[in-house]
């Protein structure tokens, strides 16, 4: 398989794909969602690096629209005890897999690099909880952060939202929904976001197989998430289809060059620019989907997180005057 791959792949990306090939694990769509979750969790140690210490880590449970919601709260090294900037991080995993452990490494990096408080929710997953359950949970967590800022030691006026892949999808939707809030998100940090559930972009053809996340697996994720085909056109599933993106939070968008989601990420950044939303678009041409979760295999993962933090600082005049990491 690897001999037919693009010669433009970064060595670390090619190495990860070689490991995947050698493991010869069945694709997620060959089994049940529960089997996919177990396989994903078992594979994490081979991808992620050492867990960076933060100033404090706590968990708490809040009332969510579908029942109790568990949050993991990271206070980064150097974060102020009160009125700290905050980040709501929404993990990826195709709305089907992923949890508080799967993106722990990224949350720690963000907390420390930004000297902020990161809140990561264990939002409801499909197919047990289909659209719009996940986004309803995300709305509830943002509301909790806004209303409980004093208790959390954060500034309600300086909350940003971030996410990768399906989490990036939820982050974009959340920022669109929050446009009328008293304190809407100040930034959206998007790592290879999913923005169009029609899955018709040309990158689905170019990288359909052999580059990690396949077109078949992405269709399996989507079909577990949506209630029926009508949801594909709903902008809360496909934010690229929203009538207008005007008024959304300033955005950082990271694109992996060898990723089936590359084109829709590029298209979303272009739509934001067209609607006069500030955008910082960064491309990692030789990388594959999910590279920010592959910190064990090279510097690109942490570099992307650092670039996101730098963009966030640039969007926020108060934050920007603070000393950068």
Automatic annotation (TrEMBL):
Family of this protein: Belongs to the 'GDXG' lipolytic enzyme family.
Active site per UniProt: 165
Gene3D superfamilies, A to Z: alpha/beta hydrolase (3.40.50.1820)
Xref: InterPro entries: AB_hydrolase_3 (IPR013094), AB_hydrolase_fold (IPR029058), GDXG_lipolytic_enzyme (IPR050300), Lipase_GDXG_HIS_AS (IPR002168), Lipase_GDXG_put_SER_AS (IPR033140)
Residue ranges constituting the Alpha/beta hydrolase fold-3 domain according to the UniProt record: 87-292
PANTHER family: AB HYDROLASE SUPERFAMILY PROTEIN C4A8.06C, ALPHA_BETA HYDROLASE FOLD-3 DOMAIN-CONTAINING PROTEIN-RELATED
Keyword line: Hydrolase
The protein, known as: Alpha/beta hydrolase
TM stretches of this protein: none
MF annotations from Gene Ontology: hydrolase activity
PROSITE patterns registered for this protein in UniProt: LIPASE_GDXG_HIS (PS01173), LIPASE_GDXG_SER (PS01174)
